[in-house]
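User:
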Amino acid sequence: MSSVRQTTTEWVFATLRASILSGELAAGTRHSVYQLAGELGVSRTPVREAVLRLTDAGLVTVERNRGIRIRGVTAEDVRDVFELRLLIEVPAAAYAAGAAADGLLIEVKEASLRLHALADTGDTEAFGVADRHLHAVIASAVGNRHVVAEIERLRDLIAVRGASTIGRSRTTRDIAGEHDAIVEAVCEGEPVAAARAMREHLVRTGTLLMRQLSDGEVDESWAERLRSPSSE
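Assistant: Predicted structure:
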C-alpha cells in the first residue's frame, strides 16, 4: 500500500469512527461504500479498507446486498464489554500500583486533576476524553500497547450508541470522584486497594449502563464470577 493511500485510509477510518461515536452516523442506519466515498470525496478503495477496520473494531457490520449497518449496543453487549474490562483493567491497576515508575505516577495525578477540572465545565465530550485518558495511563503501566488499544476498542463498542451514564445515572463530578480511590491506591503503591477500587468503579458503571438499556432490571451478580483474589 502506498503512503498516500495509507494516509487516505487512515483519514477515512478516523472520520467514520468519529461520526459513528458522535452519533452522526446513527446506530441501525445503513450506508453504502459508494455513498460514503461520495460524501467524503475519496475513491471507494480507502472506504472499503476503512470499513474492514471498523468491522474488526465491532462498530459496523457488512450485510450482503444490504450495505454497511452501524451497530447499536444492548445490555448484553455492555455486560460482555465490562467483563472483559474487568479482566484487563483490574490487574492492570494492581500492576500500576506495584510497579509504576515515578514518571507514570505523575501522569496519573495530572490526568486525575484534569478529569476533576473538567467535571464542572459542562463539556461532557472533553470530560469523556479525559476519563479515557486516565484509564489509558493506568493501563500503560503494564508496558503492553495492545492492552491500552483493547481498552480503547472496548470503550468504542459502548460509545457507538451514545451509551453513557453522564446526566442520566450520575454526574461528571460523581464519576470523577469514583476515580479518586483508584488514583490514590495507585500512587500510594497499594495493589490490592487499586484492584478493588478499579473493580468497584467498573462494576458500578457497567451496572448503571445495563439498567439504562434494560428498563432498570439487572442481575447485580453479573460480575461475581469474575472476582479475583487481588480484588478482595
